Amino acid sequence: MITSKKLADYYLQTLRQSVLTDSPAKPQGSVDIEPEDFFAGKIPSQSVGKFFGSHTHPKKQTDHTLSVLIMPIIRNNTRNPAPMVIPAKISSDGELTPIEHNFPWIPRKLLSPVLEDSEQNQGQPPIADLAQFNTQIEVNPFSTDDWNTFAVQSAELFEKLTHQSLVNFHFNKNHSSDDNETNKFRIVLGEQNSGMSFSIQRTYEKIIDTKKNLPLFSSMVPNSSHKSQHVLTAQQLSEEHVNHLGQMNPEHGLTDTQRQALANYTALKPGQVLAISGPPGTGKTSLLQSVIATEWVKSAVMDEYPKVCVASSTNNQAVTNIISSFTHAASLPEDSQIIWPATKIYKNFTDKQAMFADHWLPGNKTFGLYLVSPEKYKSTSGIDAKITAREHQYLNNLSTPESLAENTKAFLSNCQQLFPELNASVEVYRDELHQALMDVVDDIQLILDGDKRDFDGQVKKEESLLVQIKEHLHQQQTLFATNKQLLESWYDYDHKNTTILDYLPVIGKKQAKKRRQNFCELHGLDEKVNLVAQFRRSRKAVPKAQDKYAQQKEKLNRLYQAKGEYTDAIFRNHIVKGEPLDAQIDTNMRYLAFMLSTHYWEARWLLEQEDLPQKETSQITKKRDWQIISMLMPCIVGTFYQVDNFFKEDSKRPMFNDIDLLVVDEAGQVSPEIALASFALAKKALVVGDTKQIQPIWALEKNIDRVNMRHLINFSEDDIETIENDGFSVASGDLMSATQHQSSFIANENNRQSIMLKEHFRCLPDIVDYFNKMSYDNQLIPKRSTPKGSSGWSLPQFGYATLLGKAKTKNGSRYNEREAQAIARWIRENKTRIESMDHGHKTRLKDTIAIVTPFKEQSNTIKRELQKEGLKDEELTCGTIHALQGAERKVIIFSPVYDSDKTEFFFDRNTNMLNVAVSRAKDSFLYFGNVDILPVKESLPSGQLARKLFAHKSNQIVGVSSFQPDEIIANLTGAKAHDDWLIRQLSRAQERVDISAPYISNLVLQDQAKPVLVAMESCINRGVSVVVHPSAEMNTEKNKLQNFQSGINTLSSLGVTIKMTHRRIHSKQILIDHHILADGSFNWLSAKRNKEDKFYNIDTTMVIDNANLAEQFALDVFRDTPQKQA
After folding, report:
1. Which residues pair with residue 185 across a beta bridge?
2. Which end is more exposed in the chain, N or C (fewer Cβ atoms within 10 Å of the end residue's Cβ)?
3. Which ranges carry the DNA2/NAM7 helicase-like C-terminal domain (predicted)?
């Protein structure tokens, strides 16, 4: 059975093992030293220069030290892994020093338990036990004060675990060796990553030990009793909309699916988690801002301390995207106007909207506080509101006596401008702002409630009912009067007609009966009628009817009043009938509520500072400290490594259940063991992500993970299956998948689908169509329309440039230098036009275009080429897909690197990589590389991409060449230049002419290219081989097939050799006599030659005359031995 304690232990063991990695022990880039140098901590000077003479390693520090890893290398047995890895710092003078929180380790694959799968390559048997290793690390902490002690402790640890000396170790214990034979120690650049997860591990340890109830963490246990997924009805969603109180963005309201997601969030209770699927471009940031804004406004309305809201993810790129969005949130665009409510309080606000929409405390200009590690502190220079676990300078600066005086003065000055009649204190202005906020929130709820009601229909119905009740009252009153009169008449008649005979027993009864009969006959009554009872009933009925009438009249008056209040609120807040109501409330009233709350909280913070004791430095050790911070910055942002590091009462006790809301962004990238410890610190969680984008970097291999689950945690086989299937595995899972299984609310009970954001605003429709079909079952709703034809320079939504080049490998990563050079050259040549793509408005190049590649080494190569082209200062984003996660550009260039389709493409292993790459492009996705390698099968992501790239002839980017300018002997532009060149070359060819013909058109050949056919025939008659290489895969459409086959017949009749290829060959090349190579965009045997054709003067081709280059870059099909057709 999976319990919360066992789950925590599983993740703790994983984090402990994740640092026990193999380390590179290759001689390249390393230094070997003798054991005595290792223990002395002094590296020979001639060896030190090998490290500090290099300028390529990213870990080089400004204090002239480098992080290194040291390993004993078994002599005469270099194929085996290093038995121990020892982290250290090396200085420029060769001194070794320990690193705080770092310790030596034995690689996990050398520790038992080991892989059980007999089909796996077992490698070396284990040399030590994992549990014993963990115990030794815990019981005997390492001293990092001096190197000698650290080195000796490392050797002692190794000997305790393996029963062999570190210096004389050999994998074969029975190995006979000379006592003088010792292992050398190899030093390579690198570092241990244990420090990153140190705080997370401590949290898991406390989760295991604590007796405290942790509802949110417990709700994340797979198949837990806490799991109960519901779908909110339309009625419930509508009722939740009134709880949406704040909006940071004054420009745009929420979309329908964003609003549905927010309604599900407001229905969330403590101890519950909500998963929101957020595909690219669907407004995840807007949703997160609305959630935080709503919580902030709600706390202000309740006059409570603000909720502590933390947003986190697994990497700094994701969290800096969040912090950036909160830094610039709520700012009012220059052309925007706040629509003030038509009430007296806002009479002085009209010309002060910029001031109102800004922060009033000079020391703080953000809504987010960044929790950052000391190592990242300096590198985040663009973010001011940041603190480390030990350094709170930003917060300290806010609360100095001088700053408080300045902030108070600025706050009062702004208040006096808006409320000149008050001229009051911070307390009075706080109350005034709070009342204004209450009025806005009351109006929001009044309008939303009123909008659900058909006031006119209700009034008509209730007025009609009032008329009926009034008529009924009149009838009851009339009946009562009639019955009263009748009873009185009877009494009078009976009295007048009574005689002395009535006093006789027998005669009296007959006389009375006779009088009653006569009275009833006289008044037309039934003799059995009870006039007294009838009178009493009607007397009681009248007050009841009067009460019912009064109640209905009161009900109608209340309805009149509600309608009047609703109408007044609509008028007061300038709501336009017929326009989307919620969108108007978002951009007007909810934004106003958020800004009123901002200034209310500023007042609360100033007053709170008066009650706090003055301290030189701030201390954050309890929830109240975070609540006070949240008065100015409602969103605390940091990676999970920092969240667990910051939220603790002291160095040992985590702040369990103290975070009111934990928001996780990019959850599809987060491995579960990194995140779930933070769930123990929170009351509820909102998890947003996409399992179709970047996957986590998993800590362990699947087989190692299963061994751990079986033998270290004692999970059953059913438990293991659940953990793996539900996304909780550290070797294959992700937080998004896990929370989708545990989410309290879902969108559909039939398929258990999580709530999904669907409206896509980033990309043009054709771009959306690619990843929408490939990854999202066509559920996305494109909101941008295809722009009409532009008179200026533009790029296709999908474009390609055919580039040649050879892929090579360096540092285990691929690169293609020719491809990189062509990309950099094209950007430099088109820089001005790219910068003017935004309707002629000049934008920075780095904000318009970015380059994505699957390989790190290609990224480095492109960066070097950009620098050579003079584009270093442009600071273009260039990297793997991780560099652009969460970002966007108008133009994305994709550099595939591959030069052959003989191996599986890295970007075809799943849909994730191309989904991310393509979805970054707002207007244009450009493929710069070898297009002939793209597969025919559309089941593959690259095959679907090829379909988009080749959908239109205009998609080809002309004028792009793999060749350097000094290698090109001719530039051909337009159909006439191409024909003239080809005819000339055919007349000069001596041996062989190869022509790549993706398309062949008999109509073009016969009507427009007769001179080319004549030249071909003449060339063949001279004994020169003319070989045409058509692509069968490019000519499968029925309406083109006959024209294609007729063209082949025409060429064959001239003696042209036809060498059909069944690959998709899109390159247009001509190779003449093995040394002249033409490569470009011109379709030699199908391009129209009439001047009216729009491509007549567009296609270009570059020509080189170099046998070596021709051999290197000519198409592979040209190398095949031609076989003449009969």
Report:
1. 33, 72
2. C
3. 749-931
Token pair recorded at residue 437: 């906020």
For residue 941, what are the contacts with CB-CB under 8 A and spacing of at least 6?
A: 774, 907, 908, 910, 911, 913, 914, 915
Contacts 24+ apart (CB under 8 A), 533-540: 534/483, 534/486, 534/487, 535/480, 535/483, 535/484, 535/486, 535/487, 538/476, 538/479, 538/480, 538/482, 538/483, 538/484, 539/480, 539/483, 539/484
Structural domain span for residue 511:
455-573
List, for residues 589-609, the tens digit of each pLDDT value: 999 999 999 999 999 999 999
Residue 525 located in a structural domain: yes
Note whether 994 and 1030 are within 8 A (CB).
no
231 & 375 share domain: yes
What one-character DSSP code corresponds to residue 42? B
What is the structure's pLDDT at 57? 43
- Helix (H) or strand (E) segment spanning residue 1104: strand 1100-1105
The answer to whether the beta carbons of residues 731 and 701 sit under 8 Å apart is yes
Indicate the pairing of strand 1057-1058 with strand 1025-1030: parallel
Tell me the β-bridge partners of 96.
90
Q: What is the pLDDT of residue 56?
A: 40
The two structure tokens encoding residue 653: 């006790």
Q: Which helix (H) or strand (E) holds 186?
A: strand 184-189
Q: Tell the burial category of 374 from Cβ atoms under 10 Å away from its Cβ (0-12, 13-18, 19+).
A: exposed
Q: Return d(Cα 1069, Cα 1060) in angstroms, integer.
A: 15
Do 180 and 224 belong to one domain?
no
3-state SS string for 669-695: HCCHHHHHHHHCCEEEEEEEECCCCCC
Same domain, 294 and 364: yes
Distance CA 295, CA 924 (A): 38
Q: What angle do CA 127, 131, 136 make, to 5 degrees?
A: 90
Q: What is the pLDDT of residue 171?
A: 80
In angstroms, the first-to-last Cα distance of the chain is 74
Cβ proximity of 246 and 288 under 8 Å: no
Q: Which helix (H) or strand (E) holds 1039?
A: helix 1038-1053
Amino acid at 912: N
Pick left, alpha or beta for residue 100 (phi over 0 → left; psi -120 to 50 → alpha; otherwise beta): beta
Could you write out the DSSP letters of every residue in 861-898? Answer: HHHHHHHHTT-GGG--EEESGGGGTT--EEEEEE----
Structure tokens at 296: 């902030």
pLDDT in tens, 442-462: 999 999 999 999 999 999 999
The total of structural domains in the chain comes to 5
- What is the per-residue pLDDT for 903? 82
Confirm if 477 and 541 have CB atoms less than 8 A apart: no
- Residue 145's alpha-carbon distances to 96, 100, 140, 149, in angstroms, are 12, 9, 15, 8
Residue among 1078, 1071, 1084, 1080 at smallest CA distance from 1100: 1080
Same domain, 976 and 1094: yes
Q: Give 148: exposed, middle or buried? Use CB within 10 Å, 0-12, 13-18, 19+.
A: middle
d(CA 78, CA 962): 42
Which residue stretches of the chain have pLDDT < 50? 54-62, 116-121, 1122-1126
In a domain, 717, yes or no: no
Q: In this structure, are residues 852 and 917 in contact, taking their beta carbons and an 8 Å threshold?
A: yes
pLDDT at position 119 = 37
